[in-house]
C-alpha cells in the first residue's frame, strides 16, 4: 500500500465520520421536536421516524423501520394515510393534510405537512412528513362553532349566560362570568352572567378595587394559575367554591375604552395559558360587541326619547313636512296650541289653510318657501298665520331639510313673534310720536355728535335762536349758539369727557347764557343727556329760555321781601302792643291828673307851677303820640281819615315844627295850590311830617337845608321803598329833602324796620320811619326814598287823591273844633283793674258834678248793681281785665239791670267790633288816654243834662 492510498483512505474515513456526525445531530434535532417526523419509501415502508412518532405509535424505531401503515394502524386509517402519500408522490409537491385517528390510545387530529424526497434525476423516491398535533385546536373550533350556533339567536343577558357556559365548558373550569363597568361609577362592576358548575346564578355588583379583576380591566389578559387566595382577598362565595386559580380578559369598545371583563375561576391549577388566552380573546370580542351594542341601543333609545321629549316640550311650534306627498306627517303640541287645531286636524290640513290668504302669505307662497328649503337646505322668513278661529298672528319660520328615519323631510320651526311685531309697530309709532313731540316741544332740543356738530335742531330751537334747521345742521354748536367767551371752556370740557374724564354737567339742570342769531344773549336753563349709538355718542341738549322765569323770580323775591317785612312787623307788633297797653294805662292817669292840676292852678297866681304843669302836659302828649304810633303797628290800629287840604296841613304842622328845627337849618317850602285833596288823619299827617323833618335835621346834624315840597304827579312802575310793591297812578306828593350825607344802600334796606336806628344809643327809638311807613300805607299811600351817599336824601310821600269839594273839607275841619266841658249830674260806677286810672276817672267825673264810685274788680261791680239796680245812671268799664272783659261784664248786667247803660273805654279800641257789643252797651268805644271833650259829649248825651 503506497502512501497515496493511505491518504485516500484517511480522507474517506473523515468524510464518513463527518456524515455520521451530521446524521447524529439531525437525529437529535428531530428527536427533540414536538412534531412527529417520518419518511416512507414509494412502497409505503418507513425509512425514518423520530422519538415523537415512536411515542404516538407505541413502537420503537427498530420495530417501525421497514413496516407500512397497514402494519401499524387500523386498515381504514392506514388507507387514508396511504392516499395522502400517493398524492404527494404523484404530484411531486408539498401538501398539507388533516389526518385523524387513534394515536397513543386517543383519538387525535394532526396537521401533516408532507413533501417528496427527490433523487438525482428529480424523481420522487420517498415521502417525508412532519405531523403537528392539532387535536386541541380542532376541539376549540368545534366548541366555538357549537357556541356560535348556540348564541347566534341569543341577545342581552341570555347571550352572556351562553358565552359564560361555553367558555367554562371549553376551558374545563368550574366558574365563568362576564361583568361590565358601571358607566356612572367605574369603580363598581356589574355582573352580567355568572356560571358556576354549569348552572347560572343571579347577577350582582362588586367593587373592583383589590380584586384580581382590577389587574385585568383597563390593562390586559391576566392569569393566576394557582394560589389565588394568597394573592387576593376572596369573598365568601369564592371561598365556598374553593377558588384556586383565575384568568381574565378585558372587554373594550371599538375605541379601546374599557367596558369590563370576562373571567374564569377553577378549583384546580390552570395550565396552557396561551390556549386559555386565545379562547378567552375570542369570547371577549363577542361579549364586548354585545355590551357595545346594548349601550348603543340604550343611547339610541335615549336619543330618541330625548328627541321626542324635545320635540314635545319645544316652545317653538314644529311641523314635519313630507315633500314627496305634500302632506304634514307630524306636529308637536306647541303647533296644536298655537294654531288651535288638534294633532289629527293638522295632519290632514292643507298648508294653504295656515296662511292669511293674502300675498305673500298664500299656499303658493308657502310652496315656494318649501321648494327653496329643499333646494338650498334651509330657508327663513316671516309668515302671517291664520288660526282655526280665523285670528291672525305673526310667525318667524325656519325651514330645514333633513332625513328622518331615512326619509327626506322638511322641518318647520315656527315661533310666534306677534308681540315683537306689535312692539316694532309700536316702536315705529313711538318714533313717529317722538319726532312729532320733538317738533312740537316748547323747549329747544338740540343734538350734536362727538365732534360737536349739530345733528338735530327742532322748531322751538329755530324760533328761539333765529336759525332754520337746514342752516344749523352740520354747523359747530359752539360757534353757533355759545357766546365767544365760553367756547374754549366748552371745547375743553368735551375733550375731557371723550377722553374718559368726568361729565359734571350731564344729567343736571344748569343755567347758561346762550347766543341768538342776531348776536343777543339770553339766560337759559340747560340739561344735557348722552346716548350711545352705533356711530358714537350723541349729546342731547334740552334748552329753555328762562328770561321770563328770572323776571318772575325777581318779582317773587320782592314779594318774599314784602312778606318777610310784614312778618317782622307782626312779630314786633305783639311786643310793642303789650308795652303800649300797659303804658297807656299809666299815661291815662298821669295825663288826667296833670290836666286837672292845670285847671285848678289856672289863674291862681303861681306862674312857675303853671309852667311846670304845662311842660308836664306837653310830655304827656308826646308820650300819648308815641303810644298811638306803637298801637298802630302792634294792632293795625287805624286813624280817623278826613278830607284834608295838604297845603294847609303842611302850613299848620310846619308852624308847630319850627321851634324844634335848629336855626342853622334853612327851611324851604314849595307847595302848589290846588294840588288835590287827600283823605288822611290830621294827627297822623302831623306825625309823618314830624318824623320826616326831625330825621332830616338829625341827618344834617343841625346844619343844612330842609326842603318841603307839594305837588301832584304820576308814577308808573317804580317800587315802593317800604313795601317793595310797584307804584302806579296819580298821587299827591309831599317831598321832604335834606342836604345831609345820604344813606348807604345796606342801611336803606332797613330804615323802615321798627327799632332800627343808626343813631347812638339814647338818641333815637327807631320807631319814626316805621311809624311813617304804617301811617302812609294805612292811608293807601307809598314811600319812595331817593338817596346817594354824599348827595342828601329825599323822602317822597305819595298819597292818593280824593275827589271832594272845598266846602266838605271846611265842614269836617269845623266838626273837629274843641268844645267847652259841660256841668253834669248823676251817679256813675267806674270799673277798672288799674287803680290809678279808675281813681282818676272818679276825680274827673266828680269835677264835672257827677257822683262817681270806683271798683277794681268786675265781680264787685256786678254785686253793687245787684244790690241796687236803679242806683246808677251809667257804668263806665275798662275792656281788658284779668277775670272777665268789659263786654262780658255788660252781658252779665243785662238780666240784673237791663236799663243801665254801659260805656266801654280801652287802649285797644280797634279790636272791639260794634257787632260784639251787647244791647245795653253804648255804640261808642272811648280810646285811652281819655279825650276829655269826647267823654263830656258822650256823658251829656247819656245823662240828658248839662250846664254850659
What would your notes on this structure say?
The protein is an alpha+beta fold. The strands form 7 sheets. Strands 6, 7, 8, 9, 10, 11 and 12 form a 7-stranded antiparallel sheet that branches. α19 packs across α26 and α27 runs parallel beside α28. The chain is 43% helix and 26% strand. A hairpin with a 6-residue loop joins β6 and β7. The radius of gyration is 70 Å and the shape is rod-shaped.
Distance between the termini: 228 Å
* Overall average residue pLDDT: 83
* Distinct helical segment count: 29
Radius of gyration: 70 Å
Characterize the main sheet: 7 strands, antiparallel
Strand content: 25-35%
Sequence stretches where pLDDT stays below 50 over 5 or more residues: 813-820
Shape: rod-shaped
Helix content: 40-55%
The count of DSSP E runs of length 2 or more, i.e. the number of strands, is 34
**Main structural class:** alpha+beta
Keywords:
948 residues, alpha+beta, five-stranded antiparallel β-sheet, rod-shaped, single chain, seven-stranded antiparallel β-sheet
Amino acid at each position: 500500500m503506497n502512501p497515496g492510498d493511505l491518504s485516500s483512505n484517511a480522507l474517506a474515513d473523515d468524510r464518513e465520520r463527518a456524515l455520521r456526525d451530521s446524521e447524529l445531530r439531525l437525529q437529535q434535532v428531530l428527536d427533540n421536536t414536538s412534531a412527529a417526523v417520518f419518511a416512507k419509501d414509494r412502497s409505503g415502508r418507513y425509512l425514518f421516524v423520530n422519538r415523537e412518532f415512536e411515542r404516538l405509535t407505541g413502537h420503537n424505531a427498530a420495530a417501525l423501520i421497514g413496516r407500512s401503515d397497514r402494519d401499524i394502524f387500523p386498515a381504514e386509517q392506514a388507507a387514508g394515510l396511504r392516499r395522502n402519500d400517493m398524492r404527494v408522490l404523484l404530484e411531486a409537491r408539498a401538501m398539507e393534510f388533516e389526518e385523524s385517528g387513534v394515536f397513543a390510545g386517543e383519538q387525535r387530529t394532526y396537521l401533516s405537512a408532507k413533501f417528496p424526497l427527490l433523487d438525482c434525476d428529480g424523481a420522487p423516491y420517498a415521502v417525508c412528513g412532519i405531523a403537528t398535533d392539532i387535536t386541541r385546536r380542532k376541539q376549540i373550533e368545534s366548541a366555538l362553532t357549537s357556541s356560535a350556533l348556540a348564541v347566534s339567536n341569543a341577545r342581552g343577558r341570555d347571550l352572556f349566560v351562553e358565552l359564560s357556559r361555553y367558555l367554562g365548558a371549553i376551558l374545563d373550569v368550574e366558574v365563568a362570568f362576564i361583568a361590565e363597568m358601571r358607566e356612572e361609577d367605574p369603580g363598581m362592576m356589574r355582573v352580567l352572567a355568572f356560571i358556576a358548575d354549569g348552572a347560572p346564578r343571579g347577577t350582582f355588583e362588586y367593587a373592583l378595587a383589590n380584586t384580581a379583576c382590577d389587574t385585568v380591566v383597563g390593562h390586559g389578559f391576566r392569569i393566576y394559575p394557582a394560589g389565588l387566595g394568597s394573592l387576593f382577598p376572596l369573598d365568601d362565595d369564592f371561598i365556598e367554591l374553593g377558588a384556586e386559580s383565575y384568568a381574565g380578559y378585558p372587554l373594550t369598545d371599538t375605541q379601546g375604552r374599557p367596558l369590563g371583563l370576562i373571567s374564569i375561576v377553577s378549583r384546580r391549577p390552570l395550565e396552557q395559558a396561551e390556549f386559555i388566552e386565545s379562547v378567552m380573546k375570542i369570547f371577549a370580542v363577542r361579549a364586548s360587541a354585545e355590551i357595545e351594542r346594548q349601550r348603543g341601543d340604550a343611547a339610541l333609545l335615549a336619543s330618541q326619547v330625548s328627541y321626542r321629549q324635545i320635540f314635545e316640550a319645544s316652545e317653538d311650534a314644529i311641523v314635519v313636512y313630507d315633500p314627496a306627498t305634500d302632506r304634514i306627517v307630524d306636529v308637536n303640541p306647541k303647533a296644536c296650541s298655537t294654531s288651535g287645531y288638534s294633532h289629527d286636524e293638522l295632519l290632514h290640513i292643507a298648508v294653504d289653510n295656515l296662511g292669511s290668504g293674502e300675498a305673500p302669505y298664500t299656499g303658493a307662497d308657502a310652496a315656494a318657501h318649501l321648494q327653496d328649503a329643499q333646494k338650498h337646505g334651509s330657508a327663513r322668513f316671516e309668515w302671517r298665520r291664520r288660526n282655526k278661529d280665523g285670528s291672525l298672528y305673526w310667525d318667524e319660520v325656519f325651514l330645514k331639510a333633513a332625513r328622518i328615519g331615512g326619509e327626506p323631510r322638511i322641518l318647520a320651526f315656527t315661533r310666534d313673534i306677534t308681540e315683537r311685531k306689535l312692539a316694532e309697530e309700536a316702536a315705529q309709532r313711538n318714533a313717529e310720536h317722538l319726532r312729532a313731540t320733538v317738533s312740537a316741544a316748547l323747549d329747544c332740543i338740540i343734538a350734536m355728535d362727538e365732534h360737536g356738530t349739530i345733528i338735530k335742531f327742532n322748531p322751538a330751537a329755530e324760533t328761539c335762536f333765529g336759525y332754520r334747521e337746514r342752516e344749523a345742521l352740520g354747523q359747530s354748536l359752539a360757534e353757533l349758539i355759545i357766546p365767544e367767551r365760553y367756547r374754549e371752556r366748552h371745547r375743553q370740557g368735551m375733550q375731557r369727557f371723550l377722553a374718559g374724564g368726568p361729565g359734571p354737567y350731564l344729567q343736571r339742570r344748569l343755567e347758561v347764557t346762550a347766543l341768538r342769531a342776531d348776536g343777543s344773549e339770553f339766560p337759559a336753563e340747560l340739561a344735557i343727556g348722552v346716548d350711545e349709538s352705533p356711530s358714537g355718542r350723541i349729546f342731547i341738549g334740552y334748552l329753555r329760555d328762562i328770561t321770563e322765569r328770572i323776571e318772575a323770580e325777581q318779582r317773587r323775591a320782592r314779594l318774599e321781601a314784602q312778606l318777610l317785612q310784614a312778618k317782622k312787623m307782626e312779630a314786633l307788633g305783639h311786643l310793642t302792643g303789650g308795652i303800649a297797653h300797659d303804658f297807656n294805662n299809666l299815661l291815662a292817669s298821669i295825663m288826667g291828673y296833670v290836666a286837672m292840676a292845670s285847671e285848678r292852678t289856672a289863674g291862681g297866681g303861681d306862674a312857675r307851677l303853671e309852667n311846670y304843669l304845662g311842660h308836664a302836659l306837653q310830655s304827656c302828649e308826646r308820650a300819648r303820640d308815641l303810644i298811638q304810633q306803637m298801637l298802630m303797628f302792634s294792632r293795625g290800629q287805624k286813624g280817623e281819615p278826613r278830607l284834608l287840604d295838604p297845603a294847609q296841613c303842611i302850613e299848620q304842622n310846619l308852624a308847630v315844627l319850627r321851634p324844634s328845627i335848629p336855626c342853622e337849618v334853612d327851611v324851604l317850602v314849595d307847595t302848589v295850590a290846588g294840588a288835590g285833596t287827600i283823605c288822611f288823619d290830621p294827627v297822623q299827617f302831623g306825625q309823618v311830617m314830624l318824623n320826616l323833618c326831625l330825621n332830616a335835621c338829625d341827618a344834617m346834624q343841625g346844619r343844612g337845608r330842609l326842603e318841603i315840597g307839594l305837588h301832584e304827579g304820576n308814577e308808573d312802575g317804580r317800587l315802593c321803598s317800604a313795601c317793595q310793591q310797584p307804584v302806579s297812578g296819580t298821587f299827591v306828593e309831599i317831598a321832604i329833602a335834606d342836604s345831609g350825607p345820604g344813606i348807604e344802600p345796606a342801611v336803606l334796606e332797613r330804615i323802615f324796620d321798627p327799632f332800627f336806628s343808626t343813631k347812638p344809643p339814647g338818641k333815637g327809638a327807631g320807631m319814626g320811619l316805621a311809624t311813617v311807613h304804617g301811617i302812609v300805607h294805612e292811608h293807601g299811600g307809598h314811600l319812595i326814598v331817593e338817596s346817594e351817599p354824599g348827595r342828601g336824601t329825599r323822602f317822597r310821600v305819595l298819597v292818593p287823591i280824593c275827589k271832594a269839594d272845598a266846602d266838605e273839607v271846611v265842614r269836617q275841619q269845623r266838626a273837629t273844633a274843641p268844645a267847652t266841658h259841660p256841668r253834669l249830674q248823676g251817679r256813675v260806677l267806674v270799673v277798672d283793674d288799674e287803680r290809678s286810672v279808675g281813681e282818676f276817672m272818679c276825680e274827673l267825673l266828680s269835677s264835672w258834678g257827677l257822683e262817681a264810685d270806683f271798683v277794681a274788680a268786675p265781680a264787685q261791680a256786678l254785686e253793687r248793681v245787684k244790690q241796687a239796680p236803679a242806683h246808677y245812671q251809667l257804668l263806665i268799664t275798662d275792656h281788658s281785665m284779668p277775670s272777665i272783659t268789659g263786654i262780658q261784664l255788660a252781658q252779665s248786667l243785662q238780666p240784673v239791670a237791663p236799663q243801665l247803660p254801659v260805656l266801654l273805654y280801652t287802649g285797644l279800641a280797634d279790636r272791639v267790633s260794634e257787632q260784639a257789643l251787647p244791647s245795653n252797651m253804648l255804640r261808642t268805644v272811648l280810646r285811652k288816654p281819655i279825650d276829655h271833650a269826647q267823654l263830656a259829649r258822650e256823658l251829656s248825651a247819656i245823662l240828658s243834662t248839662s250846664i254850659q
